[in-house]
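Message: I would love a firmer grasp of how sequence relates to backbone shape in proteins. Thank you; the sequence and its tokens follow:
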Amino acid sequence: MTIDQQFLDTIERKLEAHSPTLAAEYRGAAAVLLPVLSESDFRTWSEEGAELAAHSLRSWEAAVDYFRVSPEVLHAMPSAAFRRWAHAG
């Protein structure tokens, strides 16, 4: 899948504003998910995680877990279920 670098940079900047750890978890999960998700699903997954991180003062900690477990969750369920899970954040 091809996703523009500007999108990735924008998401990473949003995440780094909360914590360098959060951005690192995103990069690790993105490396696994980019090759297997559609562009639309990848963008949704990324945006949902960024929104979760911004929800409240310490919600970035939940977003770390969201990004950390995402590759495992994707392998444990069909893609439609993964989309619902990502949307639930």
